[in-house]
């Protein structure tokens, strides 16, 4: 068995609706340029407020993918 | 450009349905008395259990608003 | 009033749909064998990725219950 | 059931005798102006030294109270 | 010399009087069912407030005991 | 000697020039409405970027003042 | 696909030789009574000293296993 | 409104003069190859000493930029 | 006004009775050899267990004193 | 002297034998594509378990290299 | 090549003007009695307030030096 | 039984071969001048890289010894 090496990058996904959707958006966007993604870790949850309501949910994730 | 100063306060929102809704509830309640809120940061997620099910989702947020 | 003592255990719930559902799944499963659960604390949020999409949301919770 | 919202404030209580008394002093003082306090969390324990002895125990607590 | 293995469990002790007593209560209760306990670590100190006074001191401890 | 009680509030100061100036701006602004401030703690340093240069230094401070 | 639930327990392994061996010892001992262990996380590394030399390496690990 | 996605990278800037200048140097250098940078977060401050004086201030920053 | 410089050292005090007494013991012992101590910070609270009861409370403190 | 700027990336190395070897594997793999690497920081140690034994040691490292 | 061993000590430097100057003051003072200092790490930034203005910037640094 | 007091100092051991050996080197060196050392805690693991390979493993330990 090979000794795999992985790289982690840090992304911030956003969504007007929920933390879960913001997370999914970050992963989907990353998939356009990165292969072999296998896991993510949530490292921060924040958001923007406008007119007294949550305007945007923001989730910072570390995404791990295997280095080929 | 003025050197803005912001204040952060810490709130706990609750919801029987989800962490996202608990977060939104905290912001909405704060909007009744605070103006110029521009961002929030999630600092803790907890909850209450009753009869073996989640009864309440609780999210602690720090809310930042511009001091006039 | 008795001086209650509580125990905390650490569980990881999973869900293909959201962090909130993953949390609820962990609590529901624990309820099959543990009584008197009263609160939980989220300590980690991660997930698995497959084919460039989130395949599984994973939430680590500490669950507190009263020791009888 | 209403979706309660709570606010947390941060106080530092002091006592020449013990950490427990410093904590109690902070809560008692807050009770003069705040209603509906329901819990506190210790976030820091420090103290002042004079003439080679502890002169003052200092406990920083976050106090949570329900917003009416 | 054997290579001992220890297990840690997490308990919350309570007391109406002090953090120290809350800690002692958690250990005493654990002693009813666990043998070979050798150390503990304080991981959190909180409490409940009622009528503007501390009603209960709560101390979360991790207790280590040798696995036989 | 009285058992003093202190309150801490959290502010974000900004400056186009340095972290130190951003800190000083937060304190100066707070002095307009708060008396008896005696110490501050830096809890976060961030900033805004525009056109590839730092546009604003931002320092979050917790400011402690004696409750009268 | 079922929504698996995992439990984490905290163990301390020891070894006179290395941190890696202390980790392996904790896992091996746990395997005598726990099935379905799938991962571990190192949370603390300490040790005992005697006569000016390391006498024992100690590694605290959280071990995750699937709840059946 | 599009659901923007951001990436964060981690840089260490250096300066013989101050932490603020070290921070600015990291941002300026990054601007040579990265567009759309909008914020940074300080995550570590260190430095090198030579001949009993500070020779170099080092600031680790996480820089966020919008993914196009 | 001189620009004072302070040094911090880390001590562990012990007591069979309480965390507060363990803290006081560490400070008293340090006073035998260190002058100008002005403050301390609690950084860890642990203890030893024997026969199912707390045998020793242990408090790690950082003690600050002015360098002459 | 130039004001050097460094970049940090986050890698996960794996090894069936030890944490040290997992660390070395991550660095060696990175060396295939990155020049001027000068230091690394261990940020997490985990592992996979199979059949009651450690199957893989995993070390997450932040690797720093000078930006040319 | 010898296997060097380093010691770290913790100092607090102060300055009426800036965090950077407070840091430099701590290092300069330490140089009077310690040789071979090679690096420092900032671990805390605080300050004193008087009359509504920052009176003193305080920086806690850990200083590393080679043990001869 | 006397109420023992302990002091902790912070050392960095190095080794070209492994984290375990770097730890042991720090303890051995300290033993030349310090008596009554009884435990250590690993607080940081880093290393130096040269020519694309790990050149030096570095382990920061806090070493505790009884004050006589």
Q: What features would you highlight for this structure?
A:
homododecamer, alpha+beta, about 55% strand, three-stranded antiparallel sheet, Dodecin subunit-like, about 70 residues, 3 strands
Spatial extent as radius of gyration of chain A = 14 Å
CATH architecture of chain A: 2-Layer Sandwich
Number of helices of chain A: 1
The SS-based structural class of chain A is alpha+beta
Give the averaged pLDDT of chain A, no decimals: 96
How would you characterize the largest beta sheet of chain A? 3 strands, antiparallel
SSE sequence of chain A, one letter per element: EHEE
Uncertain residue ranges of chain A: none
Strand order of the largest sheet of chain A: 1-3-2
How far the N terminus sits from the C terminus of chain A, by CA atoms, comes to 14 Å
Count of individual domains of chain A: 1
The CATH class designation of chain A is Alpha Beta
Q: What is the assembly state of the chains in this entry?
A: homododecamer
CATH topology of chain A: Dodecin subunit-like
Shape of chain A: elongated
Beta-strand content bin of chain A = over 45%
Number-wise, the strands of chain A total 3
The proportion of residues forming helix of chain A, as a percent range, comes to: 10-25%
CATH superfamily of chain A: Flavin-binding protein dodecin
